[in-house]
Amino acid sequence: MQARAQGERPGVAEALLKAHPLPLLVVRDGTLRQANRAAVRDLGASLASELVGRPLDDCLHLDDTARVASLLGDDVPRPGLEGPDVLRGARLLRIDGTLQPVDLRLQWVDLGDDDGPSLLLSWTDREESDRLLSALQRTSQRLADTQRAAGIGSWEWDLLSGEAWWSDAFYRVLGVEPGTLAPGYTAFLDLVHDDDRALLRAAFRRAFRGEDPLHAEFRLGANADRPRRLLARARLVRDGAGRPLRLVGTTLDVTETRALEEQLQQSQKMEAMGALAGGVAHDFNNLLSVVLGNAELALARLPEGSDLDLELREIRGAAERAAELTSQLLAFGRRQALEARVLDLREVVHETCRVLRRVLREDVSLEVRVTDEACHVRVDPVKIEQILLNLAINAQDAMPHGGGLLIETVRRRAPSRGAPTVEVGDTWPLDKNALRCADEVLMRVSDTGHGMDQATLARVFDPFFTTKERGRGTGLGLSTVYGIVRQHRGRITVRSRPDVGTRFEIVLPAHEEALREPTPARVIVRPPAAGVTVLVVEDDAMVRRVLATLLAASGFRVVMAERPQEAIDVVRQGAKVDVLLTDVVLPDMTGRGLHAALAEVVPGLPVVFMSGYTADVVAEQGVLDDGASFLQKPFGSDRLVSMVCEVLARRV
What we know:
Helix content: 25-40%
Structural class: alpha+beta
Shape: elongated
Number of strands: 22
Strand content: 15-25%
Radius of gyration: 43 Å
Strand order of the largest sheet: 2-1-5-4-3
Largest sheet: 5 strands, antiparallel
Number of helices: 18
């Protein structure tokens, strides 16, 4: 209760005293002169008249009367110029003799009468105060814990005094230990990245003037390789007259959020590229099959060394390179067919490194470190070899003056149940942050080359991106590695520092299936083509003709059909068929359905499936699941004849 201005009517002061919700006592010369309704209630009286005229000492515990006397002293009363004196943990003495713990407040006031200054006593229930204080502390702690967990800090700037307040969480968001830095506008800007400081100043100026709410994203750390990103939001608080008083805001750490957004965009971009590659693969592979097939047929009819022979070999070589490029695009898009089996990754590493020792330059040393634990994974070994070769050749290119290449395998056990771990590091992509809940096998490839800066690292898996000079690469090597790893349900991360080196880490899910005993190699005896009839079912006329010609050139009899029903009619009419060569995707019926229909007429009919479509489309037909013989277009005559002979030998 504030002191009333000199000359205010006593009746008004008395009315305010009675209406005040807190208990109030007016004391003059150590005697109670007035008591409001709340004070009468707390002291256990029925009427104020039961209290008025009694000494103050009758209303307080003996120890507290001495404390009050000590607090007031013998000074001349000083009404209204100072705040109240507080006596915590005092005890009211009620009329019935019981005690009530309170926090007592004492203040001199001038009530405007002729008796001079009076001592005004008020109090709050101690237990209620403790309860409210405890609730406030709990709320404050919850807010602090929530801010810390969410990476959000709160702050406030007084625009009149220039003083600032930062929450502990805001200190931590800034990367500063709470209390070690005096809050302030200048201190804050000193922590901001040099390139973002001017933009942030301008945003604050607009917010101070009330032109725009503060909404600014900026980076911390002028020299950090990967500066953290923060998002500041604030609103301007005005007084009743509309004058700006202070800026109140929050700052959120959005580093991981932005990185995840970039990863999503990267993933979407790569998925789109993979979809594009898959979309054109079918037609492109059919065309390449025609080019390769006709080039081989023409070469077989010409004498070796002729001018036309050399030109045809150039055509065939170009078609083979185009087929390899298509294969890389499909690998990047995770649409290649996999011949996966359970094996020990250590064996693949050892076998591949034998080849690498012959391929790498003499000034590049190769070291292999494998764990003593078994590293069983379900993979296509050819694809894993492709990964290692790609990474090793890239590493060699990054060490033009020589260096070291290290290849490692590690078995990493899953954390105990209920205690998953999170991997956090300066790596790409960010799916490394996923919780590990199963055993994993790691394969690391590290070099001591020139490394990569952050701009290069951000695009390292982009298709067609390369830092090599023109003519020294397609830019599909690492994107192919990325696609193969993802197709094996794995993940790949990369660390790199300029002039230090690069490390790729590939993580594959461990497989607990026992390794099967290797089956002895089967010697396939090539049966005489004469008298062997192959039924070719292909809806593309050019591909159908070239397949028939290639088979006929190897001595096979060939029956052709464009559609499944045509093939079924041919067999039902009594045509002798020894093996079926069919496209997987056909009009009206799948290649698998066609084989089932023909097998009713010719039990045990051998089949070779072929397709120019991507692995995901082929997989939908169930062909790969059956372990059937499968040819991915384009393929040459040797591969075609070998596969047909293999299924025939299997029948025998």
